[in-house]
Design goal:
Largest sheet: 3 strands, mixed
CATH topology of the largest domain: Neurolysin, domain 3
Radius of gyration: 23 Å
Distance between the termini: 48 Å
Helix content: 55-70%
Bound molecules: cobalt (II) ion
Length: 511
Amino acid sequence: MATEATADDTDDASDAPDAYDALLDRVQRWNAVGSASGVLGWDQQVMMPEGGTPARSKQLSALSSVHHDMVTDDETGELLDELDDADLTDAQAAVVREVRREYERADAVPVELVEEISETGSEALQAWEEAKAEDDFDEFAPYLEKHVELKREYAEHIDPDRDPYEVLFEEFEPCLSMERAESILTELREALVPMIGDIRDSDVELAVDTFEGTFPEETQEELSREALELVGYDFDRGRLDVSSHPFTAGNQFDCRVTTRFDETDPLGAVGSTVHEFGHAQYNLGLPKEQFGTPLGQSRDLSVHESQSRLWENHVGRSRAFWEQFLPVFQEHFPQTEEATVQDAYEAFNQVYEDNFIRVEADELTYHLHIVIRFEIERDLIRGDLAVEDVPEVWNDKYEEYLGIRPETDSEGCLQDIHWSHGNFGYFPTYSLGSVMAAQLFDAAEDEIDDLDAKVADGDFDDLREWLDENVHRHGSRYETNELVKRATGEEFTANAFLDYVDEKYGELYGI
Ligand code: CO
C-alpha cells in the first residue's frame, strides 16, 4: 500500500499530467484572491475607520464573486474530469480530492440562493443586535426562521438524500464524519454533566481573589507581547493588534493575531493571546512552497481549534507554564507579588458553574454550552424543533445540563452571533478542537522527553517542532481522522480529553 508515502513525493510536479498543472495554476489564482480578501477583512476589523464600510463591503463582495466564478468555471470541471483516472502520486491525488470537493459544493448551489443567504445575513445581523439589546426574541425569530429555510434548501441542492444538518456541518468540517462528531459530543455531555454537578457540590475554595483588582490595558498589552515572545511567535511574520473579538488571519508568510483586554481580567487576555498564537503557529507552519494549494492550507476548523486550545489549555493553563510566566506577570503587576504558582493555576482553572455566557465559560462548562447549541441547531435544521420554541428549549437544557436557568433571552439563546449569519454546524467544531487538542498533547507528552520540565523552563522548541512535524506541514493532505491517527497512533476519540479533565478537576475540586 502507498499509505506510507512521505513528503518526498509531494513536490514532484515534473511528471504530473498537464491537466494537473493547469488545475493547480487555477487553484493558486483563486486562493490568492481568497487570501487578498483575508487581508481586507483583517484591515476592516483592526485598522479601518468606521466610515470605510460601504467601500469595503463592495470590495469584499466583488472579490467573493470573482472567487466563486473561478471555482465554478467550466474549465475547472473539465480539468477535474480529465484527472478522474489519471496516474497521480498520493499528494497529487489529495490535491485533486480537495479541489473536487470545493468545486462540487460551489457548483451545486445556485448563485441566487447564495446571494439571498448573504442578504438575509445582513438583515438578520441587524435584527439580532436589536433583539439582543432589547431582550426580545420575537424580533429575531422571523430571520432565524428564514435562515433555517434557506439553509435547508442549500443543503438539498448539495445532496437531497442526506440529513441536511450533516451536509451543513460538512461546510465547516468536510473531512470528519457527523457520526464521529456526534458521538464525541454525546460522550462529553454524559461525562461532564455529573462532573460539573460534583464541582457545584464541592466545598473546595480555590484561590480566585489573588487576581482581582484593576490591571491597566497598556500593561496587559506589554504582557501579551511577552507571552508571545516566550512561546516563540515569529514577529517577523506576524503582529499583535487589538480587536473586539480576538482572531487570527493569514498564511505561512504573514499570520497576524489580535487580542482584547478587560481591566479586571488579565488572565483572560493571556489566555486569548496564547490561544490565537496556536492558530497562527499552525498557519506559519504550513509548507511555504505549497502556498495557495491545498497542501499549503490548513485542515478544517476542528484541527485549527485543536492548535489554539492546545496552547491555551494544555500549555497556558498548566502549572509548568506559570512557573515560567508568573515572575514576568508580577513584574508587570506588582500588586500580585504575593501570588504563588498554585494560586495562578487555581485562578486560571476555576469552574464558573453559574455562568450563562459561552464566551466567558471555563474549560469544562464550555462544552455543555456547545452541546446545547449543537442539539438545538441540529433539531432546527432537521425540522424537529420550531423556531418559536427555541428560547424555552434553550433554558430547559441549561437547567438540565448546567443546573442554571437564564432569566432573559439576551443571556440565553440570543447571546451568540452565529445563527444570525446562518452558520449552522459551526459550534461543534469548538468542542471537537478541544478534544483533539487533548489527544495531540497526550501524544506529544509521550514522545518529548520531560515536556513538562521544558515548559517550566520556557523551552517550547520541541513542542513547536512536534506540532509542525505531525500536523502543520501536512496542510490538507490527510483527512481529519487520518491526520489524528498519524500523529497519535489512535482514531480521533474523546478518551484523552476525558482522562485529562478527570485528573485535573478531580485534583482541583477534590472530586
Ligand atoms: Co479559536
